[in-house]
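FAQ
Q: What does a multi-component entry look like?
A: The components come first, one per line:
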Amino acid sequence: MLSFIVKRVGQSVLVLLVTGLVAFSMFTFVGDPIDNMLGQERTMEDVERLRTQLGLDQPFVVQYVRFLEQAAQGNFGISYRQGRPVAEILMERAPATLELAAVSGILAIVMGIALGVFTAIRRDGVAANLIMSISLIGVSLPTFLIGILLIYLFSVELGWLPSFGRGETVKIGGWSTGFLTESGLKALILPAITLGLYQMTLIMRLVRSEMLEVLRQDYVRFARARGLSNRVVNFRHALKNTMVPVITVIGLQLGSIIAFAIITETVFQWPGVGLLFINAIQFVDIPVMAAYLMLISVMFVAINLLVDILYAMIDPRLRSAS
Amino acid sequence: MFRLSAAFAIALALPVSAKDFSFAVTTDPQTMDPHAVNSAPVLGFLNNVYEGLVRRGKDMSIEPSLATSWSPIGNGEGWRFVLRQGVTFQDGSAFDADDVIFSYERASSEEADTSSWFAPVSKVIKVDNFTVDIMTSAPNPIFPDSIANWMIMDSGWAAANNAERPDKERGNFATLNANGTGPFQIASRQPDLATELKPHAGWWDKVEHNLSRVKMTPIQNSATALAALLSGDVDFINPVPIQDAQRLQGNPDVKVIQGIEARVIMLGFDQQPGAAESGQGASDMFLDARARAAVAQAVNVPAILQTIMRGNAEVASQLVSPAMRGYSNAQSAPYAFDPDAARALAADAGLTGQTISFKCPNDRYLNDEAVCQAITGMLAQAGMDVSLDAMPVSNYWPELRADNFDMYLLGWSPGTFDAEHPIRFLGSTPNAEKRLGSWNFGAYSNARIDALLPMIQSEIDDTARQRMLDEVAKIMQDEVAYVPLYVQPLVWGARSNIQVTQRPDNFFILRWVTVN
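Then the predicted structure of the entire assembly, as tokens:
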């Protein structure tokens, strides 16, 4: 088991290194940050001097090795745009994204399962059909459009909820939370729905079809024949058995909620890492882009590593497979 | 960081009074250091916090600020500035000549991005505590005009906080903090998220605004900014997307403030002879002035303004707008739209049958890509084959520097608000040593203009100076050095209870804002 884990960790590190290399080779195509850092009256000499100072005149492999050296010492460089350490900026922005992702994730799971069960049990009801039709919007409309529509309805027309931002936040240690203030909670509602809608409809449709499948099984019929109440049959016997594939999908979607957050954060001016990344691309803020991409790949690699290890623990045959 | 956020939280907890004002910008100022980045978002914002010796009024005219008066020394050896007494910085320390000397050294240092403003300066002399002589190597009649954005920093504050020189790459104390003499001071700053200002209680001038608290939030997405304005979450946004301006005008809760920016949008051409260049644009097709004239006559600028700009812009005839000093009234007629003449000229100049590589930014100027598409179509109607390549501005400038173009789109806003500025950057033969022609990507070159520029720069007599500016404008128009298209519009949006003053430099000046 130990050798399996060591091997897997080694492979993960290799994946990370390759991801970083690809990322750095791409930065040249994003553009040149120098013009964004200097004003209108710069000369070509100023441009070349700054380029040399930042080490951008070096081949990307050299830049990448230098990034790795510094990153290994916990130094992710200084943002070209803000003139502050990247690590500090990421720490400042991460809570916003993580809180948004957590709320929309929970929203998607709870609402998705509840609605999925409902539409499966009442498969011919008017309400269930209506929900199924509406859920098509969730899968087919692009996120930014849903966001703009929600803003238009609830902020501009009705004036109930704020149109952008995170509201008032409270600082606890290094973590800024929007959960503890009224404006912070209000500001969470629209972005959380926008971000979670796709996942919610996905889970709902999955739960529904799995549930319909299970409800046809013999053991459910026997349960009913034994005179068990509908509630016990639906929730204890049927739902439990639909959960295995649902949990797998939820796990897979975990990462994409954070990845999809980029669009939602842009529409709602949500001050998270996604918005930071978009701004960094526009400015060609290479240290921020590099750190963000490495962070995201560490996250995905870690999830996959964990899944691999879990599989191996469940299925001993995988351990000996070379 | 915790201290800043705490202040921010407290500020938000205060009861909302009528004098709270909140506005959205598209680009957060990169720095609070007035000498580190010479860009409009930075200088425009910091004009509310820092002040220069002179400042611009509502009509863009130069007026006294930290200097009460100024006069030329001798026969134009320099300028004497008499400083205002009793001015204090926001941290309470007093302003005097030492701060001016220090700010000169700081702003003209190699680390600064504003050093080109001081290229004409030979030295700065402290005469007494409230008199400063700025000596120039040649007579410089527009020097006071050229330093309206040179902001004065407290020497003691900079020394105490280790920020005696700007630092673009690593940042320093002055990147996040500010201490000016201006009407507003920074109450809290979270880069990219929100910046809060409060009035500077000890400001020397008469207060016109009625703001007690100002909050600036960057909102990049224009639809989100518009929604924030409509829902009342912010009181002011800049810009309003042109296509939404008309719709906003019908809404009683908001108003649209329209004007014209100082920025002229133009077409530039590759005029560098020889095969020394690389890239797709390695053709000499635009060496011939007739080829450039063909383009000038083929583009129907009024139609572009009517459709893409929704009638919000003005046709340009030269590299500066009529609101700028030194505008040439003699050359105010734009190129006439004449597709037939253009077709004939294009054929004469051998343009027909060649593919013109046209480079265009898609996130730099208002509706830039749409304008380029329209131009491409118009040139096609006059028999010219254009291959348009639009790209983000971060890729655009490197492309232009690499000479990968036959034709390109450029906008120019003269920092000095004087016609000399574009001649220096766009009209002069590129010369790194003399710092000339640094944005003249197409290497347009005319010996007479190169000779006239230093004379214009040092001419004291306004009539003689204007005569030379007229001559340059005429040469550039006759040779079709560039094809000026239009002066870019300004469209601001505000709640209807807000009074603001719009200036052609697109700076949002808070001391003129009132909330009713």
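Q: Is there any commentary attached?
A: Sometimes. For this entry: Chain B has 16 helices and 19 strands.
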